[in-house]
Amino acid sequence: MLEKIQETADFLKKKISTRPKTGIILGTGLGNLVTELTDKTEIPYETIPNFPVSTVEGHSGKLIVGKLGGVDVLAMQGRFHYYEGYDMKQVTFPVRVMKALGIETLLVSNAAGGMNPGFEIGDLMIITDHINLFPEHPLRGKNNPAMGTRFPDMSEAYSKELIEKAKDIAHENKIRVVEGVYVGTSGPTFETPAEYKYFRIIGGDAVGMSTVPEVIVANHAGIKVFGMSIITDLGVEGKIVEVSHEEVQEIGNKAQPLMTTIMKELVKRI
Ligand code: HPA
To answer: 184 near 134, Cβ under 8 Å?
Structure first.
């Protein structure tokens, strides 16, 4: 696998003239961050050797290298979800490539359903920790020590330092943020009321279908992580209504400017 990662990284190094240290996975909530990038080089996924191609509606696929508030970043517009049929090595391949390109910090975003009764639709949640409920582990299989240790520590999967900085930024900009534990599940079904209840009981504040595999691999690779969710619907007893992908996207779009503000400022303080 290391050869494939290297091949992809070598291809990308030839295409880009900067060496960003911050990577961003533009999930729901950060789509419009692209418009804030200057000096852009865009590389469609289908032109990148060994890269899977994104299929899900509402997610286009390209790597974008540019400056965000003057700082060099490497952004992934469109991620690979496990529910699309990719295996975990494919889902997390871009994170390995980021590591090979010199990325030291990864910022991720997603849409999630909130189980915490204190949450409101449209809230921004800083991810403080996660619970991995995916049926396949991204690190299962032979471990290559050159890529990370066999049994990675996960006691601070989400950088406490970055969480504090993000809270400061939110406070300074009068943006309401909540904090919580993200439960990662395979999807593609949204949860039954009983499942939301179960995820709450085991310690979750929000649930979604992404992020956890990438965060595990980033930790394995020694990349610092910061993540945020947009709470697009509520899995709280008495407040559960029908949810659709369209609604998730609509709420996600509305909350975008606030999340973008936080991430843009955070990149400068890393
Ligand atoms: N469950 C799982 N994934 C989601 C949800 C949800 O309620 N909302 C947005 N993504």
So the answer is: yes
Q: pTM score, two decimals?
A: 0.94
Cis peptide upstream of residue 188 (ω within 30 degrees of 0)? yes
The pLDDT value given to residue 111: 93
Please state, in angstroms and rounded to a whole number, the distance separating the CA atoms of residues 115 and 199: 8
Q: Which domains does the chain have, with CATH numbers?
A: 2-269 (3.40.50.1580)
- Helix (H), strand (E) at residue 234: strand 224-234
| C-alpha to C-alpha distance for 230 and 208, rounded to whole angstroms | 10
Pocket of ligand 1 (CB under 6 A): 111-113, 190-191, 207-209, 232-233, 235, 243, 248
| The two three-digit tokens of residue 124, written as one number | 């921004």
Q: What is the position in ligand 1's atom list of the atom closest to the CA of 208? A: 3
Backbone Cα Rg of the chain: 17
- Alpha helix ranges (H) inside 21-173: 88-100, 160-172
**Measured between alpha carbons, how far is 234 from 243 in angstroms, rounded to an integer?**
9
For residue 253, what are its two tokens? 């779009």
Pick from 79, 134, 191 the residue to mutate for probing ligand 1's pocket: most ligand atoms within 8 Å of its CB: 191
pLDDT at 1: 81
Name the amino acid, one letter, at 267.
V
Interval 162-199: pLDDT, tens: 999 999 999 999 999 999 999 999 999 999 999 999 99
CA distances from 78 to 30, 171, 232 (A): 10, 29, 18
